[in-house]
Amino acid sequence: MNKILVIEDDRNLLETIKYNLVRDGYEVSIARDGAEALEVARSTKPDLIILDIMLPKIDGFEVCRILCKEMSVPIIMLTARTDETDKIVGLDIGADDYMTKPFSIRELLARIRALLRRVNITDAAFPELKTTISVGNIIIDPNRHRVMLNGSPLELTSKEFDLLLFLSQNKGLVFTREQLLEKVWGYDFAGDTRTVDVHIRWLRQKIENDPSNPQFILTVRGTGYKLET
């Protein structure tokens, strides 16, 4: 049974989401403010988090930043605001999906199922994930969801890790932004190609000696990106 943490300060919406998740067979934990959210997430280790942006004590953006550093967990962010900036910021800091209130519970459940399908990868289906991957001075451990740079742990958001892992499994191959959205974010992702550019930029800042002159993640002008050893 997958465990889902719902972080929402609107009691009616919280109870509605919880009721439908339990009915769908999920184990549900709840939190009503950002501080409580961090405590519950650390104690329950959820498989997926539904996170409202406008929270008391600690806002959803900061909660997302903290949790993405501490654990690998898909996050769906919720907001009542329609400003595209909120969406971009949320995705930049590690959220996997984004929904604007009011939204359909059926759509929320569909997005949850899609995200869980992508993260519940079995070793039998993907035997290549059993070994570490080396890219120069970078070692990627898919099983532990860990990256080492020059022998030291490297902090990546869940989506940065997914992107680096995919590129490293396809060294030398060029992918368009649309292909990366499809392969890393999933068929049903509602974002645009700027999301890819932003995550590439953040990855370069973390793994390249000189992000302005990258040696690993290269831009193929007019096409997209590739990873070279």
Gist of the model:
By secondary structure, the chain is an alpha/beta fold. It has helices at 11-23, 34-44, 60-70, 84-92, 105-119, 158-169, 177-185, 194-207, and strands at residues 3-7, 27-31, 48-52, 75-79, 97-100, 133-135, 138-141, 146-149, 152-153, 175-176, 217-220, 224-227. The strands form 3 sheets. It has a 5-stranded parallel beta sheet with strand order 2-1-3-4-5, sandwiched between helices. The protein has a 4-stranded antiparallel beta sheet with strand order 6-7-8-9, with helices on one face.
CATH class division of the largest domain: Alpha Beta
Number of helices: 8
How big is the Rg?
A: 18 Å
- Kindly report the name of the CATH homologous superfamily of the largest domain: Response regulator
The chain-level structural class is alpha/beta
Structural shape: globular
Mean pLDDT: 86
Low-confidence stretches: 122-126
Query: Helix proportion of residues, in percent?
Result: 40-55%
Ends distance: 40 Å
Largest sheet: 5 strands, parallel
Question: How are the strands ordered across the major sheet?
Answer: 2-1-3-4-5
Order of helices and strands: EHEHEHEHEHEEEEHEHHEE
- Write down the domain tally: 2
CATH topology of the largest domain: Rossmann fold
By DSSP, the count of extended strands is 12
State which percent range the strand residues make up.
Answer: 15-25%
CATH architecture of the largest domain: 3-Layer(aba) Sandwich
